[in-house]
Amino acid sequence: MIRLLVLAAALIGACANAPSAIAQAVSFSEPERAAILRFGPWPPPPSTDASNRVSGDEKAIRLGLLLFNDPRLSPSGRVACASCHQPEQAFADGLPVAVGAAKGVRNTPSLLDAGFSRWFGWAGANDTLWGASIRPITAAAEMASAAEHVQSLITTDTALSATFTQTFGESAEAMGTEPVLVAVGKALAAYQETLISKRTPFDAFRDALAAGNTAATSTYADSAKRGLKLFIGEGRCSLCHLGPRFTSGEFDDIGVPFFTGPGKVDKGRYAGIQYFKDSAFTRLGAYSDDPAGKDSPAAIPSRHVALQGRAFGSFKVPSLRGVQETAPYMHNGTLKTLPEVMEHYSKMDQERLHIDGAAILRPLNLSPQQALDLEAFLRSLSPMK
Ligand code: HEC
Ligand code: HEC
């Protein structure tokens, strides 16, 4: 009798430790499996940027690395690219909004995998990585520099001027002021193209699923699997966060407030398109090295972008690779942690959303377990330590 009671107690204990939802093995349907495979493979095949003649060039990569870490690029001598894009912080800075020559209004994005983007910056102000590398040099809140300053730095520094001439076959003095600024942007881009994030537990799971290797798929945590199921299912996350970088590369309004001060707003994509249309440093301009120029297939999105009202308050869908390392979140860094991001998607106010966003987005009312599962999935998009 006593033995029976002990057995019953043990059974009850076991059940209490394993609520049914957790005990069940997570399996994926055929359409789910197909959806998961589309998040890979990782890394993508190597590619170069036709609009940048030194893309992939070893000497340019070396010059780009030097310039990236050189605070003398700013007239104050204090702000380098690496001041905000810190290598040991996944090339971000951990601050809500960037602080350079002045305090900015946007969060510093990680530069890992940035080379794979179509549009750069939260508002897509640039259509090339080299254009996006020129922008911070002259931006008042970032380096507050100018083409003349950049040219004189390179002509007067022996190491920089020698590497510059080796890379471009012409001295910075002879090249002309604005072309030097563009060349610097292109060398910086060549370096940044090498910043590719490492494979993650998710990638190992995805490839095992592709290969039908069930022993290997079973090592991916159940909570991450449940989060993944939500991500591609009920959560609708993958309607915007899709492909190997978990982004459509486009712009949306998910209801993050875009006021930056009393009576001041960040117009987001609307301002980005305006900036792009006024810029000389694009795939459509004279500085593109693409032999097909503005008729290149790579320039199609640039040719067709038009200023529309729905761009107002929209921001780029960020890549989710390595998201664990890049808190705080959103274009203005207002969400401090991944649980806060889950809370945002769980409770979002539909009234606040634009008509376009509302069709996809709705408050998810996640249970605590679902929020933890989604978070576990997002954390599996970072390389193992
Ligand atoms: C003061 C901090 C700061 C400095 C200095 C800075 N950046 Fe940035 N960087 C940012 C911020 C903030 C953004 C987002 C800008 C936006 O959306 O308008 C950004 C965006 C970018 C992007 C676009 C990334 C993407 O995925 O869309 C690239 C590329 C970039 N920076 C490269 C550089 C380079 C190269 C330098 C040096 C020449 C540099 N940055 C200097 C803060 C900084
Ligand atoms: C309608 C498109 C859309 C959907 C659906 C969507 N997102 Fe996003 N996501 C965005 C955009 C746009 C941003 C950036 C918004 C901003 O900064 O204002 C973002 C930002 C994020 C960030 C912050 C990343 C960073 O680096 O700052 C995370 C994490 C995230 N989303 C996860 C999710 C999850 C999880 C889901 C599903 C529950 C989801 N998203 C659904 C468009 C979407």
Report on the architecture of this protein.
Helices cover 42% and strands 2% of the residues. With 385 residues, the chain is an all-alpha fold. It folds into 2 domains: 26-43 and 198-268 and 313-385, Cytochrome Bc1 Complex, Chain D, domain 2; 58-192, Cytochrome c-like domain (Cytochrome Bc1 Complex, Chain D, domain 2). The strands form 2 sheets. The chain has a two-stranded antiparallel sheet with strand order 1-4. It has a two-stranded antiparallel sheet with strand order 2-3. Strand 2 (259-261) and strand 3 (264-265) form a beta hairpin. It is globular and about 70 Å long. Mean pLDDT is 92; it is low at 1-21. The protein binds heme C (2 copies). Residues 235-237, 239-241, 252, 254, 256, 315, 317-318, 320, 323, 326, 329-331, 341, 345, 357, 360-361, 364, 374, 378 line the site of one heme C. Residues 79, 81, 83-85, 98, 100, 104, 106, 108-109, 111, 114, 117, 120-123, 129, 132-133, 136-137, 142-143, 188, 192 line the site of one heme C.
